[in-house]
TrEMBL record:
InterPro entries: 4Fe-4S_dom, PAS, PAS-like_dom_sf. GO terms for molecular function: 4 iron, 4 sulfur cluster binding; metal ion binding. Keywords: 4Fe-4S, Iron, Iron-sulfur, Metal-binding. Residues 75-112 form the PAS domain. SUPFAM superfamilies: PYP-like sensor domain (PAS domain). Residues 22-84 form the 4Fe-4S domain. The keyword 4Fe-4S applies. This is Uncharacterized protein.
Amino acid sequence: MHLDFSAHYIETMVRDKMPSEEEIEKILAMTGKITKDDMLNCGTCGYPSCRDKAIAVYQGKADIRMCLPYMRERAESMSNRVFENTPNAIFMLDRDLCILEMNQAAKSLFGLPAGASGTYIGMLLDTTDFEQFRETGKPVLDAHRPARDGKHILRQSISAMPDGDYLVIVSDVTTEEEERREHETLRRETLDTAQKVIDKQMRVAQEIASLLGETTGETKAALTKLKRSIIQGEDI
């Protein structure tokens, strides 16, 4: 008996749909690749060129964020946006504590002109924490210090950057400190008033007790005298 195990197959290769040039350019633009100079073709995404990566994104084989230069540029852009829009004053200082860079909040808080780079930070802030940071190498977090103008209370944090420069974040907490002090003053005054009321009540209680004691003694003496009179009357 002869069995035939042969089989015949028809080629059914599935070919991925190719994007148009316009679609490729649109995908490239989404990762900041507008000109040829923007297309580094570094290969870190796993594809030989930025164009091949864009085609793979179109075909659903790759994530558009799989691009190291794009993600790095995006992170830097986000950092710059935070740097410029945070309400906290931010300074970058060199090792001599001179300003390398600062954000708009720092300029507004201290009234600094645009060309204030190179200014010694000690002109603006108490340097006690900076000296401590230099000696110990430990970051300073949320230290409250008076400003040089004597009008503001500042909260400052100091840390080191990888290149050895200093990052300083400062916020004005004058209003918070004033409210805290007012609350503390009110608390002390309330405690003092409560203690005075307690002391007065104790004095009144002692005076009442003293009066009650005298009255009780007089009543006892009168009743004893009356009792004796009655007894003597019965004997007669």
